[in-house]
Amino acid sequence: MKNQLSWQGIRNQRRIDFPLHFRFDKCLHFLGRNLDECLFSIKNEKVYKLLKDANNLFLIEIKEVNEQLTVSCLNSQPNEDDWNFILKYVEEWFDLNRPLDSFYHLASKDQILSPLIHHYHGLRLIRMPELFEAISWAIIGQQINLSFAYRLKKRWVLEANNHLAYEGQLFYTLPTPQQTLNISDERFRELQFSRQKIKYLKIVAEHLQKGSLNKVKLLALSPDEVIHELTKIKGIGPWTANYVMMKCLGISSAFPIQDVGLHNAMKVQLGKKEKPTIAEIKELAKNWHPWEAYATFYLWRSLI
DNA sequence: CTCCAGGTCCATA
DNA sequence: TATGGACATGGA
After folding, report:
1. Among the four residues A52, A65, A150, A249, which has the most C-beta atoms within 10 Å?
2. A259 catalytic, yes or no?
């Protein structure tokens, strides 16, 4: 019995070697920035997240051990296909497969970025591998303060109530498109979503449901084509399209240049009293290509 | 009280 | 093509 348990323990975890320029603690610090986050949790330097594929729920724990990420599944014994799914998710979430040498080289010569890469060296662009999560979070976050946005997201997640209980704690997955369509507009209003956000969320949910919008399709397109495809959808403008490209599709040249957080962070870095104009940002960022997304992310990090 | 939040759409000229 | 208002709520 004892042997079997330890064998299971080994079987239920996998390890991922740290890539060059990776600091798990820096990623954790970014992840831990908001207390109302409901799609993962952090405890004792370990991250917990409930993942769902077509058939299964996997509660995973991620921790750092000897320059490796140890990924454990706490609630079940994944088979090899399941592990491929889980590890792919983790690799995307922490953007592990992106060599950062050229970003750091470029940033070291940049007035705005060089102090940031010094402070946050090893921080990866924390992504949202699920397309619906990235788009819905962008829509929810449009034009409202972040703490209110987190509260809205949490109410929506709790409304769908896709949870797994483990050791007295509840872990949630994102509402599905179908569940989102099933929530009445009146109920969404009670949750304090604006009529616009309700409409936009449901339009996106419908596209995902029909299959006219999906991640695999977007990944096959050029960045310009992705923007074109996404902005055809009502509720998705240039900011949201670029946000999704950077946070979900892993396009490092995505640049949500309209972002107010970006503007504020640049103002601080420049020591100015006024936020830079779009034209000024374009000038300041002209050497950032193709790393605009990373530059933006490091600037966001500076606001925490 | 006022202003502004990790924007976008729509009406108007 | 460009600009202004509406949207919802809450924090500073």
Report:
1. A249
2. yes
Collect all residues with Cβ–Cβ distance below 8 Å to A238 and sequence separation of at least 6.
A227, A231, A256, A258
Proximity of residue A88 CB to strand C below 7 A: no
In 3D space, the residue among A255, A288, A284, A254 whose CA is nearest the CA of residue A267 turns out to be: A284
Catalytic residue among A36, A82, A110, A259: A259
- Whole-model pTM: value is 0.96
Distance between CA atoms of A88 and A93, rounded to whole angstroms?
8
Q: Which nucleotides of B are covered by protein (CB under 7 A)?
A: 4-10
d(CA A72, CA A16): 11
* Residue A42 CA, nucleotide C4 C1', distance (Å): 44
| A143 CA → C4 C1’, Å | 16
Q: Residues 191-250, chain A: which have Cβ under 7 A from strand C?
A: 192, 194-196
Q: What are the pLDDT digits (tens) for A263-276?
A: 999 999 999 999 99
Q: Do the Cβ atoms of A46 and A63 come closer than 8 Å?
A: yes
Q: Is the CB of A32 under 7 A from strand B?
A: no
What are the pLDDT digits (tens) for A160-217?
A: 999 999 999 999 999 999 999 999 999 999 999 999 999 999 999 999 999 999 999 9
Instruction: Give me the mean pLDDT over the A238-250 stretch.
Output: 98
The radius of gyration of chain A's CA atoms, rounded to the nearest angstrom, is 20
| Token pair in block for residue A100 | 């950062």
CB A145 under 7 Å to nucleic chain B: yes
Calculate the alpha carbon distances from A197 to A144, A153, A187, A193, A201 in Å: 11, 11, 13, 6, 6
SS3 content of chain A, % helix, strand, coil (to 5): 50, 10, 35
Helix (H) or strand (E) run with residue A68 in it: strand A68-73
